[in-house]
Design brief:
The protein has about 375 residues and is an alpha/beta fold. It is built from 12 helices and 11 strands. The chain folds into 2 domains: about 45 residues; about 300 residues, Spore Coat Polysaccharide Biosynthesis Protein SpsA, Chain A (Alpha-Beta Complex). It binds 2-acetamido-2-deoxy-beta-D-glucopyranose (2 copies). Pfam families: HtrL_YibB (PF09612).
């Protein structure tokens, strides 16, 4: 029989042993706390870097679909209203896109979206800055005949829009200038948006593929197709597209009596910059007018992305009589599989894809070997 005192001293010894082990032993509490903190912080940081920011130091995997499928011959033949698709990729690093806390875009994200060009059967002119990205784009296009792709190495310092960089930086550094991520925060982003019209002008005047139409296409317009199993496709101008117009997707209705200053400072958008469609002559005139408008606005201390510039250009205050008329394309919710802001920003791209799908016997047959 143990006496009460013995029981207490036994428990006390047990407790001391337990306590010392916990504190100083291999799995001491302190180590456990530090270990867990380290583990969760590392996991969270890696998760954040990889899945939220997508700061991934290698290129995404490219699907070489031609190992399983064959492109139908007719898709590669030029149509009477063939369009040259112009795009550009400048590595702007990771930047904040939009005002939500975790809204960031990384080069990896753009490189993933770019993969859709591997199944775009149009003639493509791509302006790319680094040799690695040129190599990557070549790999993306490798299942299509080499004659459909023209890659041009550019240097952002040689694009006339980047000459405005110091002026734009000065405007954005004013504390009173409204801040929108990245439009009025990141001057290189603004220059890259203006540079679309530099390369559109270059490609329309060079006319590598001798096509009647030219279109700017953002690398990310068909981002929703990436990672899905979609057949090789092509874009043609929408049915009854008026060749004396310039086509855009409409984001919001236009109010032509708004003053340009308000549009530029409050980021008011009318048409999306994700796709621009016109014939050669009209594209050349539009790009020239666009560049003059950018200068005119900068001289008034106003800067924002191309979407605001175009909205400002076509207001009663800035619009010139010779400006090319804009034809807007508006998709309703759910049309062509577009929902939410996608229906507003990406409409024209999907309308052009659909215009081609309506022409072919079945929606883009896939021949599997
Ligand atoms: C850019 O311009 C510089 C100087 O004019 C020239 O040396 C360089 O080759 C150009 N780069 C490209 C890619 O055109
Ligand atoms: C394009 O610009 C040229 C030169 O200013 C002009 O002669 C021509 O009429 C313009 N074309 C259109 C369609 O506005």
């Amino acid at each position: 029989m143990l006496t009460g005192e013995e029981i207490i001293s036994k428990l006390r010894r047990r407790w001391i042993t337990f306590y010392m082990a916990f504190r100083y032993g291999r799995w001491s509490l302190r180590r456990l706390v530090y270990g867990c903190t380290f583990f969760f912080c590392t996991t969270f940081t890696l998760y954040y870097l990889f899945f939220v920011l997508e700061m991934i130091p290698w290129n995404p995997a490219v699907d070489h679909w031609c190992q399983r499928e064959k492109a139908p011959d007719y898709i590669l033949q030029p149509e009477a209203d063939e369009m040259t698709v112009v795009t550009m990729f400048l590595d702007l690093g990771v930047f904040k896109k939009g005002e939500q806390r975790f809204a960031y875009h990384s080069p990896y994200k753009y490189r993933k979206w770019m993969r859709v060009f591997g199944r775009l059967a149009n003639r493509v002119v791509a302006y790319i800055e680094s040799d690695d990205d040129i190599q990557f784009f070549r790999e993306i296009r490798s299942c299509l005949p080499a004659t459909l792709t023209k890659i041009i190495k550019v240097d952002r310092d040689n694009l006339s829009s980047f000459k405005h960089l110091p002026k734009i930086s000065r405007i954005y550094s004013r504390p009173s200038y409204p801040k929108y991520h990245p439009n009025t925060v990141y001057p290189e982003y603004t220059c890259a948006m203006h540079a679309k019209y530099d390369v559109l002008e270059r490609s329309a005047s060079e006319d590598y593929f001798q096509t009647p139409y030219f279109a700017w296409l953002d690398v990310g317009l068909f981002r929703n197709l990436d990672g899905t199993d979609f057949p090789i496709f092509k874009m043609v101008p929408p049915d009854k597209f008026h060749p004396e117009r310039i086509g855009f997707s409409q984001v919001w209705p236009q109010d032509p009596v708004r003053i340009p200053e308000l549009i530029m400072k409050e980021k008011i958008v009318w048409v999306a910059g994700s796709m621009v469609l016109a014939t050669q002559e009209y594209m050349l005139n539009f790009t020239r007018d666009y560049k003059l408008a950018v200068k005119e606005l900068l001289d008034q201390g106003l800067s924002n992305s191309d979407q605001e510039v175009i909205n400002a250009m076509y207001t009663a205050k800035m619009r010139k009589p010779h400006y090319i008329k804009i034809k807007t394309y508006l998709c309703h919710q759910g049309q062509l599989g577009l929902y939410g802001p996608d229906a507003r920003y990406f409409c024209l791209g999907y309308v052009c894809k659909n215009a081609w799908e309506k022409r072919v016997p079945q929606p883009a047959p896939v021949i599997r070997s």
